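Task: sequence in, structure out. Protein: Molybdenum cofactor biosynthesis protein A.
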Amino acid sequence: MRFMPRAQLLTLEELALVGQAFVELGVTKIRLTGGEPLVRKNILQLIQTLGNLAGLKELVLTTNGSQLPKMAQSLQAAGIKRINISLDSLKPDRFQELSRVDKLEVVLRGIEAAIQAGFQRIKINTVILKNRNHDEVIDLTQFAIQQGIDISFIEAMPIGIIGDHNRAETFYSNDQIRQDLKQAFTLIPTTETTGGPARYYQIIDTHTRVGFISPHSHNFCETCNRVRVTTEGRLLLCLGQENAVDLRRIIRAHPGEIEPLKQAIVKAIDMKPKGHDFNLERSTQILRHMNVTGG
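Result:
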């Protein structure tokens, strides 16, 4: 893996300025995601700064869990309210194959550390692939129930070029997952929302909710109000489109000035597309991978 040259990345101060600009424009929720945001040096400094923004109601984090054994308590103290942890398998060999790192035991310890830290809500994010890990749908859900946390199943998005499987052949819809879960659990639809695309069901007689994020089988573009700012300062108006605005150029042309940045954001939001154009039968249109998208 090659890391991006430091000069291409927004500094922590520049990232904080972006966060401030969005909050001053009315945004009430910020999520730090990746890649893996917790490997960024001095990330707690950024989290504390964002957590202190007047008007921000919720600061949340998505992580692969590898840094949580040593950072969970500090993250909670710094202002993180909710945390999502990626977990696609409970089998060590399969976990390594899917994630390309041999860290299942570390991630499981990270989940335990997050529980002990006392976040308002903890959720597992799981991507299910047919003939890869679809036989673990019930086991992963049972694990969430045992831990007293939530789980969301996310349909794989056709982002980035891959060579180890055919997306159309490995696609496993959330409708199929729901049918699998009904064999073992009773799911009750809820009206709960975290402001994102997930549709939640309560598992009866448990504290666990199951969420389904379905960009293919149940497109949610009409309700999407999310944008993403990458670590390079690219404002992505849709994960399923390549159109973006270079906020880094604006920030560095007007050091420390927030008004030009706010004006650029407002202008960009007017260009937010109506939706993505995902098609499993076509060649990949989005060449960037999620692990370099960040945000």
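The chain has a mean pLDDT of 87.
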